[in-house]
Design a protein that fits this description.
By secondary structure, the protein is an alpha/beta fold. The protein has two domains: about 210 residues, NADH:ubiquinone oxidoreductase-like, 20kDa subunit (Rossmann fold), CATH 3.40.50; about 70 residues, Alpha-Beta Plaits. The strands form three sheets. A five-stranded parallel sheet has the order 2-1-3-5-7. The protein has a two-stranded antiparallel sheet with strand order 4-6. Helix 4 runs parallel beside helix 7. The longest helix has 13 residues. It is globular and about 55 Å long. About 10% of the residues have low confidence.
């Protein structure tokens, strides 16, 4: 996997002579101290929106003041349905999905509906065209709230079965969240461009993550006496389905939407100590 990322992103070494002499910095972002310069061969990025609430796309645009320069100078968005008008459709565009361009990274938001032939075809085609596929947000990563759908939606009543994209194609990395936090988006883009494997390692590991429910937190962390009672899971839960009771998390199953954020934020599920110390200047 590391060699694959090296090949596509060159660990930030593909710089022009001018950029090396006068490196540019992203707009002031206190959350990231990494520097980037212009890239000679810009990585090609695709953004795919399947079944979800578009919250993850909003999280990306929330970073516009931080990422505008990076996205302009560092990458080319060659495919997208929401961020840019460069997507390919049999009816509305002279280019068919089968002519989807090659891309280095595909960000996929939302789970995939098994009754939606268009989305199924698009997902399989992007796997062929993309060097790396990222499950962007909890719906793409583990299904999240779409797992509760049983059909009968007003717009598409036949759409009843939604699965995470890893059920159908190989996923290389994942960024969890419902929605993902704007900060982790900004830092992940910079890390990806710079080839910062220490920061990206947890996301590579989470590509195969299947822990998405508060019950998994109880089984994998609390029941194994790993919980320290820090309360991170409760603070990370967007639906307030977790509360701390006598120093341990208690999950309200009726409020849990199975986004997996509690598991991925728990410091006992993974703990990148070196990276945390670096960010804090310790």
């Amino acid at each position: 996997m590391f060699e694959k990322i090296k090949r596509f992103f060159g660990f930030g070494k593909k710089q022009t002579a001018e950029a090396e002499a006068n490196p540019e910095k992203p707009k002031d972002d206190k959350s990231s101290q990494q520097e980037v310069g212009k890239v000679a061969d810009k990585p090609k990025i695709g953004y795919f929106h399947l079944s979800g609430c578009t919250g993850d796309g909003i999280a990306l645009t929330e970073n516009y003041d931080i990422l505008a320069e990076l996205l302009t100078n560092m990458v080319d968005i060659v495919y997208g349905q929401t961020l840019v008008d460069v997507w390919y459709d049999d009816e509305n565009n002279p280019y068919a999905i089968d002519d989807m361009p090659e891309m280095d990274l595909a960000l996929v938001e939302g789970s995939v509906c098994l009754q939606d032939e268009h989305s199924l075809h698009e997902l399989k085609k992007l796997r062929e065209k993309a060097g790396l596929v990222c499950a962007y947000g909890s719906c793409a990563m583990n299904g999240c709230f779409t797992r509760f759908s049983k059909g009968g939606q007003q717009a598409q009543p036949k759409h009843e079965s939604f699965v995470p994209i890893a059920d159908l194609i190989k996923v290389d990395l994942a960024i969890p969240g419902c929605p993902v936090s704007p900060e982790i988006v900004a830092k992940s883009v910079v890390a990806l461009i710079n080839g910062d494997m220490d920061y990206l390692q947890p996301m590579l590991d989470m590509a195969a993550c299947s822990s998405n429910c508060g019950c998994d937190l109880q089984t994998n962390i609390v029941n194994k006496a790993l919980c320290t009672g820090c309360g991170t899971c409760a603070m990370a839960c967007q639906t307030r389905a977790i509360k701390m009771l006598e120093g341990r998390p208690e999950v309200n199953k009726d409020r849990c939407i199975k986004c997996g954020v509690c598991n991925t934020h728990c410091p006992r599920s993974w703990f990148p100590e070196d990276r945390i110390k670096q960010d804090l200047g310790l």
